[in-house]
Amino acid sequence: MPFEKIAFIAADTTEAEAAIPALTKRYGNADEADAGVIVALGGDGFMLQAMHRFIGTGKAIYGMNRGSVGFLMNAYSEDGLKDRLESAVPSNVRPLKMTAEDMHGKSHAAIAFNEVSFLRERHQAAKLEISIDGRVRIQELICDGVIVATPAGSTAYNLSAHGPILPINSPLLALTPISAFRPRRWRGAILPNEATISVRILETAKRPVSAVADHAEFRDVAAVHIELDQSHGAELLFDAGHSLEERVLSEQFGY
Fold first, then answer.
1. Which member of 12, 31, 44, 79 is catalytic?
2. Is 44 an active-site residue?
3. What is the layout of strands, in order, in the sheet containing 216-218?
4. What would the pLDDT profile of 46-95 be if each residue is shown by its tens digit?
5. What is the pTM of this model?
6. Which runs of E-coded beta strand occur in 187-248?
7. Distance CA 161, CA 152 (A)
8. Which of 9, 78, 208, 245 could form a disulfide with 168 if both were Cys (CB 3.0 to 4.6 A apart)?
9. Domains of the chain
């Protein structure tokens, strides 16, 4: 059976690590390579780390909240874990693929399940040129930064920056400015997920910008290209009645 062997991993916190012995006593703790499912104990940040760690392995990840918000996690309980796994609802999420070149000509690459964000590094606002599929759409965006978010990430940093919530299965991406100064009335765009987004940093020496893909940061970038990675993904498992699709939908109604 696919969930007969469970591997438990925990965030580096007292609460998460303390859960391992009790769960191991009841269900065993298989080697990650042999496990049919990975059970991640922690918060949303740790779940993101697990998604990056196990991408391409074909292993489903079931999170139990031993952190704070726990949007990507299920409720923690030591009871009935195998039954919960058997009835869990899967959600497949694909990451963004980011390629960047910095001011020194060095290339960088990373993936992001939530978002790729561009952030000013100094007191002066950033100046960005934004192109979609090779066509310049904004010649000069003066702002603190900009976010490219997946549907899974649209309720995270993107929502805090007043970006739109995207249904989890929608073929869309959100492009959201952070404190846009000019054009002052621009509030962002919703794009098809097959679009290629290119950001060129203007006045790089005077107004340096960092590019961040989930938790990977690259400073002093000059040009960045972003597209959906169609070849990789992560399968998350959620308790019946509490699917990721339902959670994202509920966010639109304030609960």
1. 44
2. yes
3. 189-192, 172-178, 145-149, 115-120, 209-213, 216-218
4. 999 999 999 989 999 999 999 887 889 999 999 999 999 999 999 999 99
5. 0.91
6. 189-192, 197-202, 209-213, 216-218, 221-228, 234-238
7. 15
8. 245
9. 6-94+233-251 (3.40.50.10330), 96-228 (2.60.200.30)
